[in-house]
Design goal:
Length: about 375
């Protein structure tokens, strides 16, 4: 033990010497123990002196010894000194024990409060999920009706339309589609948090999935004169995935890339075949993401900043949903990005192993084949 670590102990001992409890016979058993521990000291020293002088051990001889050798009075103080030392030690020990018990009690109280708050948060979280589910379904029902009436109007089932009316209906239909996607995202995120989102994997030709996705987003890209570059090899192995959900992943990430890429640039899709999986990458040349915010980019309702939310729209659910879907496929997703240089999203999906049997494709998970 060095001096620096010993110094606090000395300070506590000195403080204890100024505490009245240190000298209390009633409240400090350590003081009594110290006194009893010190009593043998004057008895033994006096006895040794009498024995050395061949004198009988008696009170008169002991008193004479104290008169002849006054230093013996020092040994008489030993019970008191021992009592003070042990009493101070007892005071320090009791104070430490009291601090420990107080700390333990405070932990119990804090733990109880934390448990109550956690239960309250869980209840609020459940209420939020129930609210999202209820509102989403309640919105979807009238929205379906509105879509039906818009279709009737566009198909001229209720009469001819002027060009201006057609333009208004086109804008209305676009907004309905936007609202439809938003409601679908809210339902998906509710199912994900409730652990109810299920996938039904099958062997998929990923080239067809990507072609379908590009086709659905081509109009959005055309409006900004953005080139969608498909670099996937036609011989790319099949993947083991849920067709609807993996299409949703490509749509969300590719749509996100188009949204944040300035006009007259390009967004590319590429893939790299691994041992048991395929690593896909979607690269844009958009605004990029600060390094400090990359860890939060897949959180629900998150966007880089409020200005981006106002400028680009959306509620920040697409990437969070994509991450959950990839994880349900036992894959992983990550991002590399630099501000003003663009972002590159990566995700891995396990691949199927194809075997030709009597002219039919029998697709099996590579991991199952190896097992």
């Amino acid at each position: 033990m060095n001096f620096q670590s010993f110094l606090p102990i000395v300070k506590e001992f000195i403080r204890a010497l100024g505490n009245r409890r240190t000298y209390s016979i009633r409240n400090n058993c350590y003081f009594i123990f110290g006194v009893l521990w010190g009593i043998p000291v004057p008895i033994v020293t006096s006895g040794m002196c009498l024995y050395h002088r061949n004198l009988v051990f008696s009170l008169s001889n002991i008193a004479g010894e104290f008169l002849v050798h006054p230093i013996q009075f020092f040994f008489l103080l030993h019970p008191l000194l021992f009592g003070i030392v042990f009493g101070a030690m007892g005071t320090v020990r009791d104070e430490k024990e009291k601090q420990r018990l107080d700390f333990q009690n405070s932990l119990v109280i804090l733990n109880k409060e934390l448990k109550e708050k956690n239960n309250a948060l869980q209840e609020l979280d459940k209420l939020k999920d129930d609210f999202l589910t209820m509102v989403s379904h309640e919105l979807w029902s009238p929205l379906t009706t509105v879509k039906g009436y818009v279709s009737l109007l566009k198909e001229k089932k209720v009469g001819e339309l002027t060009q201006k009316q057609k333009d208004i209906l086109t804008i209305t239909e676009e907004q309905i589609e936007h609202l439809d996607r938003l409601i679908a995202d809210l339902i998906d995120i509710s199912e994900i948090e409730a652990g109810k989102l299920k996938i039904v994997p099958e062997c998929l030709d990923v080239n067809k999935v990507v072609e379908k996705t590009i086709g659905s987003l081509s109009q959005r890209a055309l409006e900004k004169n953005i080139t969608l570059e498909n670099r996937l090899s036609p011989q790319l192995p099949y993947i083991w995935a849920d067709s609807r959900r993996i299409t949703q992943v490509f749509t969300n990430i590719l749509g996100n890339a188009i949204k944040f890429t300035p006009d007259n640039r390009k967004v590319s899709i590429d893939a790299r075949v691994m041992a048991d999986s395929i690593e896909f990458s979607i690269e844009d040349s958009g605004i990029g993401i600060p390094q400090a915010q990359l860890a939060n980019i897949f959180e629900k309702f998150y966007q880089v900043d409020s200005a981006a939310k106002r400028r680009y729209g959306g509620c920040g659910l697409g990437l969070g949903i994509a991450k959950s879907i990839i994880e349900l496929h036992q894959g992983r997703i990550w991002i590399e990005s630099k501000v003003n240089e663009g972002s590159k999203f990566f995700f891995e999906i396990r691949k199927c192993r194809k075997k030709n049997i009597e002219g039919k494709q029998d697709c099996l998970l590579s991991s199952l084949t190896q097992a």
